[in-house]
């Protein structure tokens, strides 16, 4: 089990640990009902340092992402990003296909189109897309072409796989927008998207709106006006909600003290963190932890 830091609260499993063979950045895995050899690792709260896309053909296992419970459904498509916390309730075999790739893969010049797609940036912290029959048929077709290409040894094999993956990610991003955003991507909307992406990258270090305005090279007032108009929420509310997502993850999935969690989230004063949490959740971190564990465990 690879830890990203000596004192890491939730373990993070690396791509290289999960897929020790291959090119170290991209893997297409077909599951045919066998148990995953890493099943024991997935039965405890953990993060993965890579992106994962999953199409389920058969399977009915239950798993948690952050504090939301999901039931595997062949009429859904699953996706995860590196910051999310996972735990399976039990080791259940399933049939389907997983597509996994690293941040380094996204940063390759040939994959620059990927970087700002909603299915990659995941501004709404989603995990599941509901599929209509036509959606599932198209996705299954693209993945089938990828599997066929993987098992052949033709010229330009990697280029073909990338082209299929581009098509798949664009299709999934359109579904993401329909189901999570459902709004026109005008200039102001693009600014909101860039802002929420920056929050996902920097929320542990940057808690002030002015810091994000500086990264976006605009004034704090302009950022506030655009974000409020496009989302109905102020920029500071977006920042606070992202901090609350992580706070709830840590309260639910770890036994670390409130003081330790406050420090992990960038709060120097745990008393301030307690006031911050209560203001947004109407309960203290300790009260939230007690109530959520009583409900789900």
From TrEMBL:
UniProt-listed InterPro entries: AraC-bd, Homeodomain-like_sf, HTH-like, HTH_AraC, Tscrpt_reg_AraC-type_HTH
Key words of the record: DNA-binding, Transcription, Transcription regulation
Listed SMART domains: HTH_ARAC
Gene3D superfamilies: Homeodomain-like (1.10.10.60)
Any single Pfam family the record assigns to this protein: AraC_binding
Domain named HTH araC/xylS-type: residues: 193-291
A GO molecular-function annotation: DNA-binding transcription factor activity
PANTHER family listed in its UniProt record: ARAC-FAMILY TRANSCRIPTIONAL REGULATOR (PTHR43280), TRANSCRIPTIONAL REGULATORY PROTEIN (PTHR43280:SF32)
Name listed for the protein in its UniProt record: AraC-like DNA-binding protein
Record organism: Mucilaginibacter lappiensis
């Amino acid at each position: 089990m690879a830890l990203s830091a000596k004192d890491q609260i939730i373990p993070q499993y690396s791509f290289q640990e999960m897929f020790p063979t291959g090119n170290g950045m991209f893997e297409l895995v077909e599951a045919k009902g066998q148990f995953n050899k890493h099943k024991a690792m997935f039965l405890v709260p953990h993060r993965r340092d890579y992106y994962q896309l999953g199409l389920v053909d058969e399977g009915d296992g239950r798993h948690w992402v952050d504090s939301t419970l999901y039931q595997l459904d062949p009429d859904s498509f699953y996706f995860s990003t590196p910051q999310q916390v996972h735990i399976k309730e039990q080791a259940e075999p399933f049939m389907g296909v997983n597509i996994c790739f690293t941040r380094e893969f996204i940063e390759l010049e040939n994959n620059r189109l990927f970087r700002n797609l909603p299915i990659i940036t995941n501004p709404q912290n989603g995990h599941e897309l509901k599929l209509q029959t036509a959606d599932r048929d198209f996705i299954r077709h693209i993945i089938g072409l990828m599997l066929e290409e993987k098992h052949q040894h033709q010229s330009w094999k990697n280029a073909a796989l990338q082209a299929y993956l581009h098509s798949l990610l664009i299709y999934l991003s359109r579904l993401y927008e329909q189901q999570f955003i459902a709004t026109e991507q005008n200039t102001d909307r693009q600014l909101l998207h860039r802002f929420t992406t920056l929050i996902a990258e920097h929320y542990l270090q940057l808690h002030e709106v002015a810091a994000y305005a500086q990264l976006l090279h605009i004034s704090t007032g302009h950022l506030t006006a655009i974000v409020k108009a496009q989302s109905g929420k102020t920029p500071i509310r977006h920042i606070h909600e992202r901090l609350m997502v992580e706070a709830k993850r840590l309260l639910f999935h770890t036994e670390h003290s409130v003081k330790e969690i406050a420090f992990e989230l960038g709060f120097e004063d745990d008393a301030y963190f307690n006031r911050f949490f209560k203001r947004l959740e109407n309960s203290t971190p300790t009260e939230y932890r007690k109530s959520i564990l009583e409900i789900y465990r």
